[in-house]
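anyone else get weird line breaks when pasting these?? whatever heres mine. first is seq + tokens for prot A
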Amino acid sequence: MTTTFEALGLDTRILQALAEEGYSIPTPIQAQSIPTVMEGRDLLGIAQTGTGKTAAFALPILHRLAQQKGRPPRFSCRVLVLSPTRELASQIAASLRAYGRHLGLSTAVVFGGVGFGPQRSALARGIDILVATPGRLQDLLDQGAGRLDQVGTLVLDEADQMLDKGFLPAIRRLLKAIPAERQTLFFSATMPAEINRLAAEMLTDPVRVAVAPVATTAERVAQRVIHVPAAGKRQVLAELLRMEGIGRTLVFSRTKHGADRIVKQLDQEGIAANAIHGNKAQNARERALAAFRDGSAPVLVATDIAARGIDVEGVTHVIQFDLPEVPETYVHRIGRTARAGASGEAIALCSHEDRDKLRAIERLIRQQIPAETRGGAAAPEPARAPAPPRPAAQPKPPRGAHKPARQPQHRPHGHAAPAEAPKPPRGGDQPRRRPAAEPPRRDRSWREGDFRDGTPAPAFLRRGR
């Protein structure tokens, strides 16, 4: 049954902003999450990227803040949203300002790579909604520039990456500074079992909203894998990017240095590309995203963490130069294309060393990805036939049971049994063992000066002379 934003009971000023943004019907994750968050309950939301998770928590939070009176506390905030990357933090803050433009609420964003001054000033005035990366926020708290004792709602966006990529220690420190009586919201595209267990520790009686199975890939994404030697990946990547129909393309690299090497190789091939990762300065990351959006550099090479904040329409292809270590990451990567009802293509480059990762991905998504071979790579191994079942083990006789008598062997008539070789008599002609040679005994009679074998006596034996 299709619902509307009006039916969800949102503030009329928020509805006005949504109409100005062109929103008419909530997505499934929004329709299921907004009523729960408005009630003040904890929530664990799982949905594919591009399905509207930001609005799913932003709209009900704005609605609840609009019902409150008074100014935000100085040096603190009412709502804290944690994000794994600067780009995603900026994107969330921009969405909050757009949805709440008629409410008069204050929103600030805090992340690394820029100066502390404006961020300290914003905290000093007091903020309704603070969007931050964990590292920079902890730095500000350590400097005494803010506190979190007035936070009533905590949001962890992209929770799988927040907890799985090394942010857990910083998050635990921040949780100690936030009141235990709070509303906590987890939103993520994937939720592996170990992350799900950790989320259960932080949430209190949460409502679970999952609009798609964790292992489901986008329906409009055409997937294929190219088997290629590791040394030939860059050449195959350049050939793919020169093909007709390749538009705005996102290339995934496993490491930051690998992303820089790929960009350098593409530049030598005459293909305009930029890299975005954690080692890049903030202004360099913003320039790379701007060139990606306007098409002046239609190829963007990114690591998984940096790509979490990339929300660019019209991405036609996602190429996985390196297959991910975690199979669930594959699902999130290809979700960067085929957004907003469009179609897209996902291509994975698989070397011989990546075969195990590919098998893990195919087990997760429960389908075999169409494959081809280039550059002299060995064809993928066919699926092995299942091993025949082992015969059932025979039960052992109970201890103490009598063994059956040994039956005599049947021999033809007239043939005698072969004679056994007689055993030699005990103690007969067996050679006697010689005792081991004993070491020469030393007479420790130091009265004669030395040992009898000529060895000088130790000094402590000579003291009596």
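and prot B, same format (seq, then tokens)
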Amino acid sequence: MGDLAKIFKAYDVRGVVPDEFDEPAAEAVGAAFVEVTGAESVVVAHDMRESSVPLAEAFVRGARSRRADVVHAGLGSTDLLYYASGSLGLPGVMFTASHNPARYNGMKMCRSGAVPIGGDTGLTQIRDRAAELVGVSAAPTGSLIEKDLLPGYAHHLRKLVDLSAVRPLKVVVDAGNGMGGHTVPAVFDGLPMELIPLYFELDGDFPNHEANPLEPQNLVDLQRAVIESGADIGLAFDGDADRCWVIDERGLSVSPSAITALVAVRELGKYPGATIIHNLITSLGVPEIVREHGGVPVRTRVGHSFIKAEMARAGAVFGGEHSAHYYFRDFWFADSGMLAAMHVLAALGEQERPLSEVVAAYSRYHASGEVNSAVADQEEALRRVREAFAGRGTFDELDGLTVTGPGWWFNLRASNTEPLLRLNAEAAEESKMAAIKDEVLAIVGKVSV
């Protein structure tokens, strides 16, 4: 029997199948979802994992048992589910465990218009009601409609970013055997691009590498293919294809902060003076560039629920995170790795310079990347760091501890799920960044597990 208390997280549902997450649990969640949201209709999609079809079908049974009609989109990426929710005006559920290993599965839920459902916006109530409904079955009375939404999704994205007139580009895409292998061909069809596919075969066992582009070892094949083929750009998608990582023509990673700044400038060209959201561990270059182009940068905590909430509150046109999540007002404030990739392709293809030169204008600082330390007493470690940096910079505790000095900053924050402290440091000079990073890690190391 599934363990609802364990699999319901702050923003989604995720657990090992079938030990923690099974079909009776999914069916109960389907019924609870309808009861809590009051949905008369629900749209459902799923990724390529072997467990996704039976879990999604169980959810559909539960939803239909509460008289809700279900639009079943079948295979899709998470941003396709957001498109479905937004374009159809329906609450939606995506069955995926994103980049997690094959034995995991989960659910991402949203209200009509792709409004996210998190712990404080209905997820806790769904969990509690589902716990009461496990094993309680009723005959399905709602209708079931199967609908292919992929063509509409591709058409919508191509309306937002017109790539039909860009110069011919050679593009390597690593789908990691995830849902990018399903969505990329539809979006790229007929465009002036030579597509070189890597691992487009849908396979939830991830036989080639994990579908997590944040880990450098998962980019090696893409980097090699870009160099060997003489490609203009490489794109790597995660398992549910809502995140995208960019590789330049030299086979080098492009920082998500640089991508955030690039897309922000493009959106500000369309919406002058607009607000741009960035989380507190994106580069200092992001708010600088936003201001230089007449925009209003707004800093927020790390995490998609905070980004989406702040975007809606501020009416922001775009938001970016260090984790390669990118959010668009024109996409119901939801995140889409594909849409971000299309903006980069447009910026590259509308002029003649290579990608490395295009993004150089958006890369101003040297960053450490995220460094994790296992720490038994996180508060004690943070106290020691505060003490060591007292008087050397300004302190900010919006999310963990951020210390900002002349030409440098770092953020040290606790993981929500593990006994880890996560460090990000940045400076105008690489040597200064390294010195700050090493100093903080040395202090943290004294209270390590």
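btw re prot B: The chain has a mean pLDDT of 96. The longest helix spans residues 430-445.
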